[in-house]
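Note to self: the last two entries modelled the partners one at a time, which told us nothing about the interface. This time every component goes in together.
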Amino acid sequence: MAITGVLRPGLCQIRVLDMAAAKTHYIDRVGLDFVGEGPDGRVYLKAYDEFDRHSIVLRQADESGCDLFAFRVARPSDLDSFEQRIKDYGYTVYHVEAGEMPGVGRRIGTVIPSGHRIELYAEIEMADRHPPITNPDLWTDEPHGMRPIRMDHALLYGPNIEEVQDFFEKALDFRCAEKVMLPDGLLATWLTCSTKAHDIAFVKHPEPGKFHHVSFFLEDWNAVGWASDIITRYNISRDIGPTRHGITRGTTIYFFDPSGNRNEVFAGGYTYYPTDPTRMWDETELGKGIFYYEQQLNERFLTVVT
Amino acid sequence: MAITGVLRPGLCQIRVLDMAAAKTHYIDRVGLDFVGEGPDGRVYLKAYDEFDRHSIVLRQADESGCDLFAFRVARPSDLDSFEQRIKDYGYTVYHVEAGEMPGVGRRIGTVIPSGHRIELYAEIEMADRHPPITNPDLWTDEPHGMRPIRMDHALLYGPNIEEVQDFFEKALDFRCAEKVMLPDGLLATWLTCSTKAHDIAFVKHPEPGKFHHVSFFLEDWNAVGWASDIITRYNISRDIGPTRHGITRGTTIYFFDPSGNRNEVFAGGYTYYPTDPTRMWDETELGKGIFYYEQQLNERFLTVVT
Amino acid sequence: MAITGVLRPGLCQIRVLDMAAAKTHYIDRVGLDFVGEGPDGRVYLKAYDEFDRHSIVLRQADESGCDLFAFRVARPSDLDSFEQRIKDYGYTVYHVEAGEMPGVGRRIGTVIPSGHRIELYAEIEMADRHPPITNPDLWTDEPHGMRPIRMDHALLYGPNIEEVQDFFEKALDFRCAEKVMLPDGLLATWLTCSTKAHDIAFVKHPEPGKFHHVSFFLEDWNAVGWASDIITRYNISRDIGPTRHGITRGTTIYFFDPSGNRNEVFAGGYTYYPTDPTRMWDETELGKGIFYYEQQLNERFLTVVT
Amino acid sequence: MAITGVLRPGLCQIRVLDMAAAKTHYIDRVGLDFVGEGPDGRVYLKAYDEFDRHSIVLRQADESGCDLFAFRVARPSDLDSFEQRIKDYGYTVYHVEAGEMPGVGRRIGTVIPSGHRIELYAEIEMADRHPPITNPDLWTDEPHGMRPIRMDHALLYGPNIEEVQDFFEKALDFRCAEKVMLPDGLLATWLTCSTKAHDIAFVKHPEPGKFHHVSFFLEDWNAVGWASDIITRYNISRDIGPTRHGITRGTTIYFFDPSGNRNEVFAGGYTYYPTDPTRMWDETELGKGIFYYEQQLNERFLTVVT
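The predicted structure of the combined assembly is written out below.
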């Protein structure tokens, strides 16, 4: 297929209450690599198999949550065309100068009606510790911690998610791979700009701008088990798992960083093609959709967000 | 990203010498589902997780090999635009009427300079036994045999593969995820129209139109081991594996169908994005590129094709 | 080590309310092989990797539960010496004639103070579908359902478990691999006659003779995941899992047969040697001991028994 | 069963040509823990899940190979009874004083007719970094390198292996779980003192006292794959694998330490009970017995020993 436009999730900036504890969590336990610390104290991290300079940004703050979720686009000129499309859709576009994050080019952004900052950027430096390119080994240094392969997606909670879905489809060329329709409307939607079952997802929630989780991709179900072992061994606060989602089919475990932000590590999930039908869930089997083994919802999973 | 143009491999028509033996192999051992037999005796098969009516076509013939490898495109109008682009590139386009295969719309094709028939089509019926869509379980019937998820790609052998790569890149919007450059030129190229490390691959070979293997995607390394157990238990002729490729990183085992056509089942492999560099192998580490554990080539793997 | 005396769990006779439903469950879903039906209607089943004629016996009854749990001893003469040792310990021994179960030699038994019938036998016919012996393949027919390797152990609930532990240690040469000591005494004990972390286990419970679960051994954590998929797909009533036990370290999922008897399928667990210390859990970490990931008990797991 | 006599392999003393290279290999790559270095320069290592002070002993020497392979017995008095039984069998017993290895009690030994030193000991200190006992986590520090669970067994090459088998069975209460009988006699035998498929194995070879490999137990097939990745990444000399043995059914990969001593890491294998028949292989399927997937022998595997 023609590989154009929005390529993939690239940056997730997370607010943490205690940077030292956050670094231990994301580096030693989750297993990200430390890239650097900026002059404003923000800490930049990446997964071992990512080419780009960084993907996770930690910012010390008084309140936890997610500042912004940004997608990389294929070409600098895409920023201009998406700016026009976003404006044509009726949303306001803001600009972030190149260098606001070290190694990252200019970004454009908009606040979507669920209350989240969604940004696009085209340029980012290649990481010093990028995956090998010439006669490449699988990795240079052994993956550590939970051995995450990449930052994969985020799930955001907020109001107006029908509008949000429409915006992602019409202005950014995403598709809906899977959704939950209740008698009173759309409860949740899994949106993809690629062949992954989701690159971003939204759940209907009264309070705007809330962060449910950022997710890291693992190799397989064995790696989900290994992550589970680490979570208990190091007394990381677990939410739910290891289990499987009916939706996306991913195998998964959820836990919290020391600031209360939820993380997921997951594996698997189907490959989505645009010729595939959108998978649909309704109220009769919603529990199975969310947690395929438990077949019931976990109150904390539905209500605790940052 | 905008999901347009050539989406994915869709059809692989294989010549078999003994249809009964081929059916036992592909259905009972590899684990495809039987879809139907056409009036001309061709047998249609699919993997359990494919929506489309069929992906593998078996044709009884006096000589084994691959008749054609076809990609599904996003929209019927894409067939017209690709026809023009192929002609503009300088190749001849042939047409296959809708219904030549049951349930498949019209196809266009060209014979590329490696001697292979490559086709495009936009329409195919949804399979009766498609993956569930509403409140979907993982599967309806337990996957059987080697439990392949989908027909994934083919590797073809022939001359002029620099030209072939250029054609796929310029006329069909593929990208080269990985390649082997020897002092005397391109030995092999892995081409993708998606974010898979390869949707089709070519190796330089003096004789045109040769078929190295068709590959089926498995869940993980455990499934590769399970396939290996089946191969020995049922005296299926093994080529090499279980092992891993340095190139694409896939874990894999190769074996032959009763007609001598090579099959692969594999798992894993990295996700390729167009912002990624093309991975490059040279003569110093070629063995490791092909078989990461053995670090040496297997004469049979290089020379036996159908 | 000298391999003498009580070798391993061999027979578990389970009461079921609906034999047809039980057969579907244990054969099609759990994946045992059907061996035969006796003249009294009892149904005999085995796991694919067991040499002995059968291991699970289903008996139609008005109340679910476990009739008896029997261990195979090394030699017929062991039955005499254990009879003497049991009597010397102060318990009554009953006798069951050879042939009471088809293919099984004479058994001796005793009702232990937790209220359970524990039996010993030395002779049982080799199964018709035993694992191959000469130039053996891994299996003859592909394992099906959850692909259990063997009936592995049972967990029984009842009073007086300190006495029960003492009896198993002194009269039957078992050892305690792991136990839970609460301020008011022994809550649970895992007893082994081999190098497995447990061949039988007991939990303190006011009502005598209760059956918590019979457990089947799987290959690995991947197989636990596969069993979990089957459980949801076929609407089998799940108790808890997939998870891991801190105690024994086994990875596991629990579910119920259609009569309400609990089953476990599990994998892993440490190898226990008699020079190893007995692992000890106390009230501060009991939740983690039972369910390593959840770190908390599940009321149903503690109270629902048959 | 009564757990008496010879319990399990406990010590393997390996001669290495370059201690620094050996330490990097066994500690950083294989993943053993460093325990200490003795006054005579010997280096003591252990796997993370072993309670005993050490299991692998490295000794700098001019020639690689294995000095001795020792089994732990249940009680000090067993040393006296086994001394008598070995003498009664007609072999000479030698004595090694307590403290010859730090933390290890007195040992008795004999040189068996294959030319190997086989020893027994009853006492060894518990390791400082032993597996946790009270409210035990799975591990204290994350397993590293290939993550071996324990030193598991050795395969030794030498003459007179029928006699050796007889000695192990009659004097030490081992059993033969599996063997290869060729028209000219016993080629190989897998002997167990437990329920493992092998605690030691012998292959007929003209030269006495040769060392084929020491083997470390891994969690599962995924861990065998991980070990394979490490072997290639760090340019460790591989012999064969990842593959599976027909004999014992273990999944495996073989490689060499920097001194040319062969190592194995493996997973799986059946549980052997004394009521099981001895599995038998003959010349018609020997290739499959040794390497289940390749179904053919590897000259290096048969002839390269230290």
